[in-house]
Write a sequence for this structure.
C-alpha cells in the first residue's frame, strides 16, 4: 500500500543520508519521490563540491553513491545474502577502506560475498575461495583460507 | 535467514560438482580473468528463477549447461542448489535444466513451481528485482537507472 | 606527429591555468576519486570539436566552464590548447567558449572553423570517431559496439 | 574507396590476430566483413576454451579483446596520441603485465597516456602526474615523477 511505501522510503532515505555522510566524509545526499515520474530521484554531493547534476560526478563518486544506496537498502531490510562483483574497481584505496569498514558492520546482518582482484578487500575477508581453470575450460575451487582472528 | 551453502553441477564452466560453504563474516572469491567467478553469481540469479538471457550473459537457456572444453564432453544437465538457515529451520532451493529444455524447481527437496520459490522469498529483499546482487560492471547502476526502477528497489526493501 | 603539451584554463574543475608536458614514453595520471583526471580527457575530446553533451558528461555546453566552488567564483571562459610536433613543425589547436555561448577555434594561433581542425587531423586516426581515446568504463566498447560502428573505426585507420 | 577499406581491414586483421595470440597466450581471433550488416564482426577465443559467442567471454576477457583491437588499429595507423582511462580496471595482474609489455613497444609510435589507480601501470611510466583537490573543487597538478632509466 502507499503508506507502507512512503514509510519505507523515509527509512531508506535516513540510512542513505547517514551512509553518504560517512562515505563522502561529510557529504550530503537525499532520495526524493517525484510524482511526475512516480519514481525516486537520487542526489549526492561530496563535501566541498557544488554538484548541479548527478552526471557531473566522477566514475568513483558514482560508485560510492550507488554503494551508499545499496547499504541503505540492506540496513532497512537485511537480505539473506549480498553478492558484489568487482564493486571495488573504480574506487581509490582511501574510499575503498571507508566502504570496507562499513561492510564489516553490515556483514553482521547479511552474508556478504565479494568477487575481487583487490588485495585490501581480500585482507578484510574471513574466508577466501580461489578459483582456477588449471584444466582448460573447467572451473575448480583450489584453496580456502580462513583468516585467523 | 542466512546463506550457508551453494552447490553447482554442470552450470556454465563448473562441470564437476562444486560446493561453497559460507561462514559468518565476509567471503571473497578471487582468481584470474575468465576462471569462472562471475559464473557463480549467474548461478545464484538463475536458481532464483531468472529467465532473461541478457542478465545471464547467454543467448538461449541451454547455454547455462556446461558445453565442453578441450578435455571434456558437454553435459546434459545443469543444477544449482542454494542452502539457507534461520533460527528454526534449514531450507534448500534447487533449479535443474536438461538439454531438452525441461526445467525443474525444488523447495526443500519437493518439486514446486517458480511462483512458490518467489513466494518463499517475499519480503526478504531477494526477488527478481533484488538489490542484494550487484553484477560485474553494474555498480553505478543505482545512479544511472530510471526513477521508476529505483522505486521498485525501495518497494523490495519494504 | 606527437602530442607534446596540453594547456587547460577554466575547463571543468581546472580553474587555474594548468600545463601538462608529455615527453617520450608512457605517462600516467593518478589521484583520488573526483580529483579531475577524467576531466583532462574531456578537455582533449572537447578541443577536437566534440559537441555531444553525453560524451562530455554535461547537459549544456556551458557546463564545461568552471562553475565555482566553496572558495572560488565561477569563471566565464573555458579554454583548452593542444600542442603537437612532427619532424618539421610545431602545431597548436585551441578551443575557447564564453558563458554567452560564443565558441572559437584556433589553428596555430589563427581563428578557424571546426571543419579546418577536422581537415588538419584527417588521416591521423584522430577525429570524432577516433580509436585513440578510451573514456572511463568504455574499454569493452569495441566488443559491444554494433558491426557498423566497428567499420567506422577501421575506416579511421585507413 | 572500397579497395582502400578492404586493404586496411586486411592489415588491421593481421595485427589483431597477432595481439590476440600474444594477450591470450596462444588465443585465436579474427575480424570479418559481414555484407548483411555492412559491418565488421569481431571474434576472440582464449586458448583452451570453446567460445561460441562473444557474450560468453568474462569481463576481463572482453577488455583484453578490446585492447587487442585498439593495439591493431594503433599499429596500422599510429595516432599522435592515445589516452586510456582506467582500462586496467577489469584485468588481473598477469594479463595487465602482458598489456603493459605490449604498450612499451607501441609507445615508440604514439604518445601513450594512462589514467590509473594501479601500481603496476605507474611503475612502467616514465612520467607520473599527480592530481589533487586540496582546495575544494579546484584541480591542481601536484607532482611530477620522472623515472630514472
Ligand atoms: N564545470 C565544472 N566546474 C567545476 N567542477 C566541475 C565541473 N564539471 C565537473 N566538475 C567536477 O569534476 C569532478 C569530476 O572529475 P573527474 O570525473 O575528472 O574525476 P576523476 O579524477 O576522473 O575521478 P575517478 O577516479 O572517480 O574517476 C566532479 O566532482 C565535478 O564536481
Ligand atoms: N555453458 C558453458 N560451458 C562452459 N564454459 C562456459 C559456459 N558459459 C560460460 N563459460 C565460460 O566461462 C568463462 C567466463 O567466466 P566468468 O565470466 O565467470 O569469468 P570471471 O572469473 O568472472 O573473469 P573476470 O575476472 O574477467 O571477470 C568464459 O571464458 C566462458 O568460456
Ligand atoms: Mg567476472
Ligand atoms: Mg575518472
Amino acid at each position: 500500500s502507499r503508506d507502507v511505501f512512503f514509510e519505507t522510503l523515509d527509512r531508506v532515505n535516513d540510512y542513505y543520508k547517514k551512509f553518504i555522510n560517512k562515505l563522502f566524509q561529510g557529504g550530503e545526499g537525499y532520495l526524493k519521490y517525484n510524482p511526475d515520474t512516480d519514481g525516486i530521484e537520487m542526489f549526492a554531493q561530496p563535501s566541498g563540491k557544488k554538484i548541479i547534476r548527478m552526471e557531473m560526478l566522477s566514475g568513483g563518486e558514482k560508485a560510492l553513491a550507488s554503494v551508499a544506496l545499496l547499504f541503505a537498502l540492506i540496513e532497512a531490510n537485511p537480505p539473506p545474502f549480498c553478492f558484489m562483483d568487482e564493486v571495488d574497481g573504480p574506487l581509490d584505496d582511501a574510499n575503498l577502506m571507508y566502504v570496507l569498514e562499513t561492510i564489516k558492520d553490515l556483514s553482521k546482518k547479511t552474508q556478504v560475498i565479494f568477487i575481487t582482484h583487490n588485495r585490501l578487500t581480500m585482507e578484510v575477508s574471513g574466508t577466501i575461495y580461489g578459483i582456477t581453470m588449471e584444466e582448460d575450460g573447467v572451473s575448480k575451487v583450489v584453496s580456502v583460507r580462513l583468516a585467523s582472528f | 535467514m542466512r546463506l550457508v551453502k551453494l552447490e553447482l553441477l554442470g552450470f556454465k564452466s563448473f562441470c564437476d560438482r562444486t560446493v561453497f560453504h559460507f561462514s559468518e563474516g565476509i567471503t571473497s572469491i578471487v582468481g584470474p580473468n575468465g576462471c569462472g567467478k562471475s559464473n557463480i553469481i549467474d548461478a545464484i540469479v538463475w536458481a532464483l528463477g531468472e529467465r532473461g538471457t541478457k542478465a545471464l550473459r547467454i543467448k538461449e537457456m541451454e547455454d547455462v549447461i556446461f558445453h565442453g572444453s578441450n578435455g571434456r564432453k558437454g553435459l546434459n544437465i545443469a543444477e544449482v542448489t542454494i542452502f539457507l538457515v534461520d533460527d528454526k529451520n534449514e531450507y534448500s532451493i534447487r533449479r535443474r535444466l536438461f538439454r531438452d529444455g525441461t526445467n525443474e524447481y525444488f523447495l526443500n527437496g519437493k518439486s514446486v513451481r517458480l511462483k512458490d520459490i518467489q513466494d518463499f522469498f517475499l519480503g526478504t529483499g531477494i526477488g527478481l528485482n533484488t538489490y542484494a546482487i550487484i553484477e560485474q560492471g553494474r555498480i553505478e547502476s543505482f545512479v544511472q537507472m530510471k526513477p521508476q526502477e529505483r522505486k521498485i528497489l525501495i518497494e523490495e526493501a519494504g
